[in-house]
Amino acid sequence: MASHNMYNLVNTAMSILALTLISITSYAAGSVSVMNPYARAVAEGHPNSAAFMVLNNTSSQDRALVKASSSISNVVELHTHKKEGGMMRMRQVEKIVVKTKSQTVLKPGGLHIMFIGLKQQLTVGNNIDLALEFDNGEIVKVSVPVKEVAGMGMMKMRKQQ
Ligand SMILES: [Cu+2]
Questions:
Q1: Which of 11, 12, 130, 155 has its Cα between 20 and 30 A from that of 62?
Q2: Any idea which architecture 2-150 has in CATH?
């Protein structure tokens, strides 16, 4: 029957759409993929946290991460660490470049995505939402698992004093 065929067609189209949406949320879209993302678990009441990952650019052009957003904090910034007067300090950066056919590693003590003004507790085993926007308009949505991450360089230095 014609109407039945039409129903099947719509059903198939919706399944394909659903699969496409799922693949975008779990990993990557287009030329930049996000590998091994994780966010730092923090104690209740702690105002800030950070996320780390490997950005992999398979395209023939340099890319740059220009914006990150998430529902878990009031502000999300792109950060790096710089040594100033023997202290490791965090600095906001405009963008994080991923060269063509290369990877850029975001890791503790280096480049990271900073969550400022947490709205919720980050507990090991939970996942947080993160959207990464690149300079070509590409947006990659990632579900980031919360993990136990060793303290930042800055915190270690404070303890030694
Ligand atoms: Cu930071």
A1: 130
A2: Sandwich (2.60)
Name every residue whose Cβ is closer than 8 Å to that of residue 150 and which is 6 or more positions away in sequence: 108
- Coil/strand/helix, residue 122: coil
- Rg from Cα positions in the chain: 19
Separation of 33 CA from ligand 1 center, angstroms?
22
Burial class of residue 32 in the structure, from the number of CB atoms within 10 Å of its CB (0-12 exposed, 13-18 middle, 19+ buried): buried
Identify the DSSP state of 150. Answer: P
In order, the DSSP letters of 77-118 are EEEEEEEETTEEEEEE-S-EEE-TTEEEEE-TTSSEEEEEEE
62-97 confidence digits (pLDDT tens): 999 999 999 999 999 999 999 888 888 999 999 999
Residue spans of the domains in the chain: they are: 2-150
Question: How close is the Cα of 143 to the center of ligand 1, in Å?
Answer: 20
Residue 38 CA to ligand 1 center (angstroms) comes to 15
pLDDT category at 156 given cuts 50, 70, 90 is very low
